[in-house]
Write a structure and sequence with these properties.
heterodimer; A: Helix Hairpins; B: mainly alpha; two-stranded antiparallel sheet; 1% strand
């Protein structure tokens, strides 16, 4: 019996997740604003979540969906740390442009 | 397993002790907790302890590597008393975060399930993002924290995508079931599985700072407070390679080395890039950062010698960790105020005359890092290189050439200390805690030459 997720072939989820993931990776590499970079990392993690849920449904195995919860919790913890580091930097430089941060190696 | 709980409980107790304002209790409490964790590891020895429905398994491998990280962390905590002498209110937070980070390292040696690997890496890393930026008045420390955080989170995303693709191909997160899928379904010929494997390699390479994913580490090592740098260079590196070995050799299997060529190329690239960049450095901390990158390259050779590789890897890690701790303990004394700009090689000029003990320890560690015979580093290199020789003779050739190159920059420090005459070299006080750590490190670096077999026997 097909459930509603399985109506769409798994390849579609694979392609969608890969595209989302690649957008995230590109964003991390080319964007200058640290908050946007943080959002792109979240996009990468959400692409992973989507693919995990899809695989989990197709394989008929619950482990993948439980993994998604762990990823969400860790992503929240990471965002907390990341934003507090950004606040620290904003207080010093009045900006969150990562290209301004070149104090090291000089 | 008990060790993880003991470390976590210690961290909680330390945090609450900090709230009640008993500053002098914090260090003894933390060290006591670490020693208790070490004792529980010794008690558990030789019995595989499986817990949490088979998600955590402490066997001989996990115990030996956990023991090494706990010892390294204990030595770093002993050093921290003098290092954090100026810190008033936030000392408990610092100790608590480092202890939480340790629990993550232990998860990375004992995981049987990808969730534990992922959680271990995150529990190890997240406290360290904070610790890297713990000098809040210094923008360079915040910069190090942001770079470490962004690269760490980015690497986690890549690692997770890899884990997901491997899950899609094998239908399992448990290492034993992945092995079954490899044997029965022959998934290693599937593009899905191979892409996943490649992404996992990239993710873990970021964590152990292997080239070409190493670019964050010199900045992070330089900007972080030196004590945290020492923690990253020892505990995090050991944890990264423990997880790497456990996942690839014990998980994805030594019999079918379909991934070994990728690792071999990465290893050759890592050691070459690390060494060539280290040659050009003028700051001690940056030099140590690039030196740790090149050591990551040598350590990757331990993944290529099959099931026996864990022994050579362990011996090398013992030598590397002890030498690195000794280097950073001397560095913390020379650069008393932990000024980022003050870590130039010239700070070491003439200390061979003014501080012969510290200079001797630093020289010994440099010899060990360079792999000069009868130091521990030589035996580490010897076992790693012979292990990888049967499958990858060309890689051993590259590694030997690289070891020769590395002698140049390690000896530059020795030359600076003993042969560079300065009018009035500063004589610094060495606290007793530092004497103790230096003595232990020196004993290990020399003593390992006499008992390499016994150390190798610790790992199955």
């Amino acid at each position: 019996m097909l459930n509603s997720i399985q109506v769409i072939p798994i390849e579609y989820y694979l392609v969608l997740s890969s595209v989302l993931f690649s957008i995230g990776v590109l964003g991390v590499m080319i964007r200058r604003n640290a908050i946007v970079v943080l959002m792109c990392i979240e996009l990468m993690l959400n692409a992973v979540n989507l693919l995990l849920v899809a695989f989990s449904t197709y394989l008929g195995d619950g482990h993948g969906q439980v993994f998604v919860f762990f990823i969400m919790v860790v992503a929240a913890a990471e965002a907390t740390i990341g934003l507090s580091v950004l606040v620290l930097i904003y207080r010093n430089t009045k900006g969150v442009d990562i290209h301004q941060l070149d104090q090291l190696k000089h | 397993m008990k060790a993880i709980i003991i470390l976590f409980a210690t961290a909680m107790v330390v945090l609450f002790t900090g709230i009640s304002g008993k500053r002098t209790w914090l260090l003894p409490l933390s060290v006591l907790g670490l020693l208790a964790a070490f004792a529980s590891l010794v008690v558990d020895a030789q019995i595989p302890v499986i817990s949490y429905g088979g998600m955590v398994r402490f066997d001989g491998f996990g115990l030996a590597y956990s023991g090494l990280t706990v010892v390294a962390a204990t030595l770093i905590f002993v050093l921290s008393g003098y290092f954090y002498r100026g810190l008033k209110d936030t000392l408990a937070d610092h100790y608590g975060l480092l202890l939480f980070s340790m629990t993550g390292a232990l998860c990375m040696f004992s995981f049987e399930h990808m969730v534990m690997l992922f959680l271990g890496i995150e529990i190890l890393s997240i406290p360290l993002y904070v610790m890297a930026g713990s000098r809040m008045d210094d923008l360079r420390s915040s910069e190090a924290a942001l770079k470490y955080f962004l690269m760490g989170a980015f690497a986690t995303g890549i690692l997770l995508f890899g884990i997901t693709l491997v899950y899609g191909a094998t239908g399992a997160f448990e290492i034993t079931q992945i092995q079954q899928a490899l044997d029965v379904k022959k998934v290693y010929s599937m593009p899905l599985f191979n892409t996943g494997l490649l992404l996992i390699i990239v993710g873990l390479s970021f964590k152990v700072s292997a080239a070409p994913f190493h670019f964050w580490s010199p900045d992070v090592y330089e900007g972080s407070p030196t004590l945290v740098t020492a923690f990253m260079a020892t505990v995090v590196k050991t944890a990264g390679f423990g997880a790497f070995y456990k996942l690839f050799v014990m998980g994805f299997g030594p019999e079918t080395p379909y991934w070994s060529m990728t690792i071999a190329v990465l290893a050759a690239l890592t050691m070459t890039v690390g060494n060539l960049s280290a040659l050009r450095q003028k700051s001690m901390k940056r030099m140590m950062a690039y030196s740790s990158i090149s050591h990551a390259g040598y350590l990757m050779m331990g993944l290529l010698s099959g099931a026996a590789g864990s022994k050579g890897l362990f011996l090398y890690l013992v030598a590397y960790v002890m030498a690195t701790i000794a280097v950073f303990s001397v560095f913390m004394l020379v650069n008393k105020d932990d000024d980022i700009a003050g870590g130039h090689f010239s700070a070491f000029s003439g200390i061979g005359k003014s501080n012969p003990v510290a200079a001797f320890i630093l020289a010994l560690s440099m010899l060990s890092l360079a792999g000069i015979p009868i130091t521990a580093g030589f035996f580490g290199k010897f076992f790693l290189f012979t292990g990888a020789f049967t499958n990858f003779p060309w890689l051993v050739g590259v590694a030997v050439i690289n070891s020769a190159i590395s002698i140049y920059y390690y000896f530059r420090v020795i030359v600076e200390m003993y042969f560079n005459e300065v009018a009035d070299p500063e004589k610094f006080v060495i606290p007793n805690t530092y004497r103790l750590v230096m003595l232990l490190a020196a004993l290990t670096l020399i003593g390992l030459a006499f008992v390499p077999e016994q150390v190798l026997a610790l790992v199955p």
